[in-house]
Design goal:
- The structure is a single chain.
- Helix content is 0%, strand content 51%.
- The protein is an all-beta fold.
- A six-stranded antiparallel beta sheet has the order 2-3-4-11-6-9, with no helix packed on it. A five-stranded antiparallel beta sheet has the order 1-16-13-18-12, with no helix packed on it. It has a four-stranded antiparallel beta sheet with strand order 5-10-7-8, with no helix packed on it.
Length: 188
């Protein structure tokens, strides 16, 4: 198990000056990742970077939300609590803030299978590949006899997962405590 909090990762400014990114995961390596998870702070309107060959999963963590302008479809608004928006990384939509600054969660995948889904009960991680939990709020992760207290905005990963069901119990009641995610290579 690996655990990493956003507060332990230095923010890296975007080339276009519109925000900052904290990379929490680049698996299996930062140079040749097939799965990348990051938290971004969007300070102003501007385009997303293009990632050809990448599938992006995007959720708003905090703020009023964003409108993403795609060339081939109507604008899509995303707000906290919305289901993850999945799109082709080559699309590089324009991003407009619906209010002030926004913090978001991004899962990017090169090949393989994967998902980012809201924590709404127990979860069965895949037996192959990478599995994880990103917490929006503080709480306790459990898998069989193992338990771990996690602060808000923390990533917990396992590679490969052992097949035991995972749960996450927030310290205080909330509608959306976090997201489960997984990535399996196509050969798994």
């Amino acid at each position: 198990m690996r655990q990493l909090s956003t507060r332990d990762v230095a923010p890296v400014p975007w080339r276009n000056g519109g925000g900052f990114t904290r990379e929490l995961l680049a698996w299996p390596s930062p140079q040749d990742w097939r799965c990348r998870l990051s938290v971004a702070d969007i300070a102003g309107d501007g385009p997303f970077s293009a990632y050809p060959g990448v599938v992006r999963h995007f959720v708003v963590l905090d703020g009023d939300g964003v409108a993403l302008d795609f060339a081939d479809r109507p604008a899509v608004e995303q707000r906290p609590g919305d289901a993850p928006l999945v799109f082709d990384g080559a699309a590089a939509p324009g991003c407009r803030l619906l209010g002030g600054p926004v913090r978001d969660l991004n899962l990017m995948r090169r090949g393989g299978r994967g998902a980012l889904q809201p924590v709404d009960g127990p979860w069965q991680p895949p037996r192959h590949g990478l599995a994880g939990l990103f917490t929006r709020v503080a709480g306790t992760w459990r898998a069989g006899p193992d338990a771990r207290a996690l602060p808000a905005l923390t990533l917990l990963t396992a590679d490969p997962a052992d097949g035991v069901r995972w749960t996450f119990e927030p310290d205080a009641p909330t509608a959306l405590p976090g997201w489960w995610f997984c990535h399996e290579d196509a050969t798994a």
